[in-house]
């Protein structure tokens, strides 16, 4: 085997090694991308659930506020009526 043949063989071996390394790197990159996508999807679901919980809490707060406001209005009207009744009784 001549020196040129040995050099060509070495080049072929190194080229094959580089191709294998590129394939391993690509495979690792694809796996990392898939994992990142899964993590991203999980994060999106968590954010969606948190948003739903916050919207429900805001709705409950608005309903409670409306009930409290209505209650205060009714109490005020009742006090006015009671006051008027007391005034009518004493006049």
Walk me through the structure.
This protein is mainly α and 91 residues long. Helices cover 97% and strands 0% of the residues. The protein has 1 helix and no strands. The chain has one helix at residues 3-90. The N and C termini lie far apart (132 Å). The model has no long low-confidence stretch (mean pLDDT 85).
The percent range for strand residues is: under 5%
Distance between the termini: 132 Å
Q: In sequence order, what are the helices and strands, one letter per element?
A: H
| Total number of beta strands | 0
**How helix-rich are the residues, as a percent range?**
over 70%
Radius of gyration: 39 Å
Continuous helix count: 1
Mean pLDDT figure? 85
**Low-pLDDT ranges:** none
Biggest β-sheet, characterized? none
Structural class designation: mainly alpha
Q: What general outline do the C-alpha atoms trace?
A: rod-shaped
Give me the secondary-structure topology.
Blueprint: H1 3-90
Descriptive labels:
single chain; about 90 residues; mainly alpha; 1 helix
Q: Summed up, what is this model?
A:
By secondary structure, the protein is mainly α. It is built from 1 helix and no strands.
């Amino acid at each position: 085997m001549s020196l040129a043949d040995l050099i060509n063989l070495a080049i072929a071996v190194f080229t094959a090694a580089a191709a294998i390394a590129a394939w391993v790197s690509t495979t690792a990159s694809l796996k990392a991308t898939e994992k990142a996508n899964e993590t991203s999807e999980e994060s999106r679901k968590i954010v969606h659930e948190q948003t739903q919980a916050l919207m429900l809490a805001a709705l409950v707060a608005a309903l409670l506020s409306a009930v409290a406001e209505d209650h205060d209005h009714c109490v005020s009207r009742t006090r006015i009526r009671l006051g008027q009744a007391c005034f009518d009784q004493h006049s």
